Each structure stands twice: as structure tokens, then as C-alpha cells.
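S.,

Sequence below, as promised.
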Amino acid sequence: MAELLIKNGSVFDPTRSINGDVMDVAIRDGRIVESAGPNAKVIDASGKTVMSGGVDIHAHVAGPKVNAGRTMRPEDKLFKSQAAAGGYRMEMGFSIPSTFRTGYDYARMGYAFVMEAAMPPLHSPHVHEEIHDTPIVDEAALPVFGNNWFVLEYLKRGEIENAAAYIAWLLKASKGYGIKVVNPGGTEAWGWGLNCLTLDDAVPYFQITPKEIVSGLIETNEALGLPHSVHIHQNDLGNPGNYRTTIDTLRLAEGVTAKNRFGREQVIHSTHLQFHAYGGDGWGNFESKAREVVDYVNGQKNVTFDLGAVTLDETTTMTADGPFEHHLNGLNHLKWTNVDVELETAAGVVPYVYSPSIRVCGIQWAIGLELALLCKDMDRCFISTDHPNAGPFTRYPRIYTWLMSRKFRDETIGSFKYSDKVVAATEIAGLDREISLYEIAQMTRSGPAKALGLKDLYGGLSPGQDGNVVIYDIDPANLPSDPSKLEAAFQRAAWFIKTGEVVVKDGEIMNHGNKRTLWVRANVPENPQVKRDIHDKFIKDYTVGLQNYEVRDYLAPNPYVIEVEMEA
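The prediction came back faster than expected:
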């Protein structure tokens, strides 16, 4: 790796409270260092914005439901596809891009890491095959636990040690990173044709409630000391009036203190919060409740969230919330597929069009932006689209621009068919705040890196951190008045250096870089009961043998394994 010196850039590094200072950044052997030697290759960043590589805390980029979407939507494969430049691989797809386009587009935007946010453990080899196939960007995956039979049974009996031992085993078997919860209890209830829309709805057969599941998994997560908090998709996603269930769920974290050695202070991460901040009792009086939700989060230091911002595109929804996808299909009557994953989870896929001509879509768009504009701590509020559910991740630059420009927001509102009704149902028209470049760096770099327990690797430009540096052709002293130019600059970085190697120059891919897969090994005391339970259930209930379940090491290339010890 060449030694690099990035000179005279306007640096934004919230980890060191650096806010646009003109300074140099040096990289040696793939890491940020204090200074460069006389033979370092010099990159002149004068008049440009310099940040660390981006960190995406929540996206669906690998695994069986992603491939199901690709299969059922051949029109998406053709939509906005392009031939590769410079001899690299063909790129295709828009809302569900190919693995190659996924890696290339993240790199073009200057992203170093993405979290696959819902891995069905049974299909974890498939997930890791796709991660292996995705170039440049580092990845990890969160196994889903909120509807897992082992977890439901252990938590019903209050057996936290057994739940912890099982989760530790499954993280190792699936090469997973942490605890993901999707519609706790509701996806299992879907197997009986039901759902859990409130925290007190009992799961059929198991007779455990979402409240008990979430509380038990928070306790288990802290007992294990995992790097990331419980990552939760709350019950009642996408329905008018669901903000009450959202706040009730977040209240389960009150009084709980994070116990880990990774600098994480939070115990719960609420994902794609836009879909959980709805008021009204039906679509006729559907309205924003972003303020009520964010006011609660602003007062609770142990909660983080990502936006799930709507981008007003044709896209493909996909989630382990099977009953929601069935409900969505009943609304739009487009293609639909659902699948049950044995003892673990389920999933559904439905195409969707967020049209500016539809009142509800305009309100959803406004809610996603309101959540950020009303937040007081941008180190706990992260940019996402719940890719591809509210729109493709390639629209992140557009979200930055909406947040940074009141003018652009007003122009967008003016393009809506029912702009007056969108304004009446939201606060977006009255919010003058314009997010700064420093706050963008918090929402896309330092904040998510810290929340994931990865602040020693990503999110900043301190000596010792990974040499992930992006240079945008944006002069902080003279921001473009044309929103499209600001978006274009974020879309295709002038330079992106990934672990010390130049992978993007002038928006074009130059190198496949040094990719890593991250996963967690949780060390717990030997637990004979859990070992016996796993053996018995695989014989009795699974369609695969235990010996064929675990992800083989060769599927996790260049691994970065994080070790944790269970609390005594």
C-alpha cells in the first residue's frame, strides 16, 4: 500500500470535534497516522470536503429475500443498469442492485461499511456468499432472534443464561454480529394467520408477549456485553396510530445501563423510525407523529435510531415482518411473495411506488425528514432508507441535500399533487433548520460507528483508525446553491481511499480494495442444557442436520472477529 498524504482539505471529524478545519490527513499501512513521510503520494484536497468513510447501520443487501426480490422483479434488473467502466464487472439493478453494483455504488458514495440488517440464521451461508461476492465495502450481518423458537421458550421461562448461551452459539454458527428483532412475536404469530400489533398481544402456542421478548433480549444483550445494542423493528410497522406502540417499546429500555467495553452507551436501536411514527386511526386522517416520537428519544440517552427516509421512488419492499408484507399487498395488489423459515423467522417481498401524487407518500416523505430536523443529538440519529424499503441506498445523497437545504424541501413539497394536505398533516413546512456538513458526518460516520461498537475502526480520522477517507468536491465555504450539484458531489466522490488504497477517483472505480467481513464471537460458560436442546431440536424440527448448519470459514473472507465475554 502506498503512503498517502491528503493535503489542505476541509476536514469534518466529529470524533475529535473538528468542524471544517483545513488540515492534512496521513495514511500508512492501511491506517490513519500522525504524519506522512517525504515519499508519500500527495492528494490535494484544497477547497474540498474531507470525511472518514461512511457507515450504514441498516440495509438489506445480501441474502435470500434480496435474491427473491431480484427473481420476482426482472424489470428492476434492467432499470438504470449500466456497463462497467475500466474493465470491472457489469452493474445492474436499481432498488435491488447486483452484488457488484452494491459494492461499487457504496464506494462511489464514500462508504466503508454496511450492516446487513436481517439474516435468517438457517440461510446464513447464502448471506455470506453474497457478502463475499460484494466488492470493496466491509460488511456484517445481524441474525434475527425475535421470533426464534429457542428464544421464545427460554424467555417465557425467564432463563436469561440459557438464552445468552443459545444466542452466543448462533452468532458463532451464523458468523453474525448482534441481536436483531423484527416484529417481535408477530412474525411467529403469522404462522397461525395472526399478528402481534401491541406489546401485550400473546404469541400463539408460546404464550409470550412482545414486551417480554424485547425486555428479555435487552437483558440478554447486556449480559453478553455485545458491541451493538438490540436492533429492533417494532410491532405494528406501517399502520396509522403506531407511534404509541413505538414509544411504549422504547420505554422498555428506561433504567437499563449499557454494559460493554466498546464505548456503546445505548441499549436499544430503533430502526427505520419513519415507518413507526404514524398518527391517525386510518388512512383518511393519517398524520405525522414525528415530534412525539423524537421528543421521547431526545429525553432518553440510551436510545439510537435510523430514519428509514422515503425517497419518492419505485422500489421493492422486503422485510422479515411477513404479516406486514401481506397487508401491503392488500393495499397495492402488486406482486407478492412470502416465506416461512422453519423455527426462526419469515419474510415477504412486495414492489411499491412512493408517488408524489399520493397524499400518504408525501406525508411519509415528510416524516422521515422531520425525525432528523427535530432531533437534538445527531450522534444518535442516523441516515437510512431501510434499503430498499423506503428507497434505494443510492438516494442517501438526496436525503443529505433535503436535510441541508430548506429550499430543496420546499421545492419538493411544491411538486406534490396534494401539497396542502401534506403540509397540514406534518410540520415539515415550518422547520427552517438546515443540517450542516458536520452533522452529516455525525449521522453517517461517527454516530453509527459508535452505536455499532466500531468506533476504533470506523467513523473518524484519528491515528490508528482504518484508513478510510472520502473527499467530496464540495467547498464548505461556498456550498452550491443548486441542490442537484450538492447531491451529485455526494453521489460520486472525488476520491475514496479504503483501508489505504484508492478505490474511487472522480466517481469511477479504480480498485476492488481490501474487503472484510466482521462478526462477533461471544464466549459463555458451557451450558449442557442448551447444547442438548440444540441437538434435540435439530433432530426433531429442522430440515437440515446440525453438521450442515454452520457457516464455513471460507465464506467469511478476511474476517475481523470481535471477542466478548459474558458477564459473570
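The chain has a mean pLDDT of 95.

Coffee later?
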